TrEMBL record:
PANTHER family with a match to the protein in the record: ARF-GAP WITH COILED-COIL, ANK REPEAT AND PH DOMAIN-CONTAINING PROTEIN 2, CENTAURIN/ARF
Membrane topology: Peripheral membrane protein
Summary of activators and inhibitors of this protein: GAP activity stimulated by phosphatidylinositol 4,5-bisphosphate (PIP2) and phosphatidic acid.
Annotated InterPro entries: ACAP1/2/3-like, AH/BAR_dom_sf, Ankyrin_rpt, Ankyrin_rpt-contain_sf, ARFGAP/RecO, ArfGAP_dom, ArfGAP_dom_sf, BAR_dom
Function in brief: GTPase-activating protein for the ADP ribosylation factor family.
Classification via CDD domains: ArfGap_ACAP2, BAR_ACAP2, PH_ACAP
The organism of origin for this protein: Rattus norvegicus (Rat)
Name under which the protein is recorded: Arf-GAP with coiled-coil, ANK repeat and PH domain-containing protein
Lineage, highest ranks first: Eukaryota, Metazoa, Chordata, Craniata, Vertebrata
Bias (Polar residues) ranges: 552-565
Domain Arf-GAP: 403-524
Repeat region (ANK), residues: 636-668, 669-701
KW Transferase (keyword) present: no
Amino acid sequence: MKMTVDFEECLKDSPRFRAALEEVEGDVAELELKLDKLVKLCIAMIDTGKAFCAANKQFMNGIRDLAQYSSNDAVVETSLTKFSDSLQEMINFHTILFDQTQRSIKAQLQNFVKEDLRKFKDAKKQFEKVSEEKENALVKNAQVQRNKQHEVEEAANILTATRKCFRHIALDYVLQINVLQSKRRSEILKSMLSFMYAHLAFFHQGYDLFSELGPYMKDLGAQLDRLVVDAAKEKREMEQKHSTIQQKAALQDFSSDDSKLEYNVDAANGIVMEGYLFKRASNAFKTWNRRWFSIQNNQLVYQKKFKDSPTVVVEDLRLCTVKHCEDIERRFCFEVVSPTKSCMLQADSEKLRQAWIKAVQTSIATAYREKGDESEKLDKKSSPSTGSLDSGSESKEKLLKGESALQRVQCIPGNTSCCDCGLADPRWASINLGITLCIECSGIHRSLGVHFSKVRSLTLDTWEPELLKLMCELGNDVINRVYEAKLEKMGVKKPQPGQRQEKEAYIRAKYVERKFVDKYSTLLSPSEQEKRIISKSCEDQRLSHTRVSVHTPVKSNDSGIQQCSDDGRESLPSTVSANSLYEPEGERQESSVFLDSKHLNPGLQLYRASYEKNLPKMAEALAHGADVNWANSDENQATPLIQAVLGGSLVTCEFLLQNGANVNQRDVQGRGPLHHATVLGHTGQVCLFLKRGANQHATDEEGKDPLSIAVEAANADIVTLLRLARMNEEMRESEGLYGQPGDETYQDIFRDFSQMASNNPEKLNRFQQDSQKF
């Protein structure tokens, strides 16, 4: 390290030393001024940024208000809601940036000025004091007279002590100077580097956010172009209609409004006739008021304003009569008389009066006919209870089909509030944990890294069916029973919404350090454990009679392949050991699937739970530190992902892949998950592994790749998928489209297979069903 001030010159107290000190002291004073200025500018920038965030938040709230106002327009409401959510997240990113700026620039540099520069100033004061004492001692020693021996000795002793003290203080001062000069570089660069990294993270987050929003904006732009074209077309049609009506109006006689003479007793909306009439009030003054009258549902009603509830004049037209009224001074009057009251009305012309009278009379006759036919209609109707059940089931089915990812995921217990802070209506999710999060907690989860948490939006992102099904298999309640098992025992309270620093510490302790995980807990209740022990003893007796030939897919009814319609599982029977499918009969071991998880290490617990399709227990094993790629040396180095294939659950495979499982890790026979899924004829799993980057060119110890196995087994669906994937891979390599998804036809076919595997797995079970016939 280069010294700013030489220690040797310090001992000499030479003019070079004094000049160096003067230069350093001037430099430090200027440095202090520069740092103070920079800190003040940083504070002003942060305050301005906070004001910008506040104004931006008000603008975003204005967009949300406009979205709520546009609730009758689905396109505008959805678009503005998505945009306001994105802007809200950008505001959160800005807030994080300003917080990090305050920590990196303001706090760090202020600490350097207050601590290190203060130490330098203190050392400088001590040096100046001892330097002055040394100068006084030298002058006193020089002035003492030779014949005064006592004073000579005293002056010499004082000078010696002062020089010794000076050297000590001077060396300390030089050391403080050199340390400060060295530290200033690291402190300044460290704070600026932290500040720049904060900007890098901010722009990356913004880029990721708008990259996710980009496809929706592109679709909206295309839709907007169509709307512009449609609006122009509607404008031309309205202009033509306007011109036609204007021409018609020019020829019309405005002395009477003949357009109001029309009435229709069979109108679809039930309104036979409507229009303005004057009505005489029943008060003492007999005032006349203009009201909007209508004949509908066998009643005569009127309204003062459109939003007002209609006032019924005649409840049942069958009980009233209508007649002309010529004995009053006003013209065009007629009276509607009922058993309890009469209503005097006035039309605008004689033609209108005749039209209203005719409409009332016709409605009276129609009411009589409808009541007479009512009994016949009731006889022809089916049972009301049956009809209501059918309509209820249809509406429920339609509702389920129309559910969004947000609605489906929030139906899971605990998912209506944030998993970590409890804020209501979370719009984000961690797909590898299977939990829902508020926007602030999702930002903290992003900072943990994708090896801990993969964050997606429930409203902005497109959800693959297997991933959505995975979210519905877990949920906040299940995961919190694992990751917060010891929370109450430790006396720790969950952070509240808005407490960002407390949230960051809590989330890191929960998911990274796993402080609240009970290493000795199990998700099984005592009653379930007792059932497992009983089931194990029964299954051990049955296992000795169960044998499956080597390398043969389990096809027949005896093998017990079942299809679970609710989650797409192509399951093996619980009586068959996971490793027994590919072992010679003499080497098969009894199933240990039913061992209590308390006696398993985390890797083995994950291994067994993967076969059992028990996602909560798998999540527990991962929380206990299980290696997701753990290989069982007792069972051909099989991995949990291979066990999930043998268990037949598509969701289990997706859970392992989202948590970092290697899709190409093979067992001792050289077979990876894609090999096993092909042998067993699990089409949905083959589709999933190909989408997740499985290597279909890998061969097992017999030299067979998945395609040759599928061809031998005559499984048309899997052969189609493998050949399409291989063809797509060759096309991308020939065209240099590395990292691109590939041909649209290929994507559409794989999307259809994914939908069937998750929602209609029975359609992919043709291979097993055809083989069972023979």
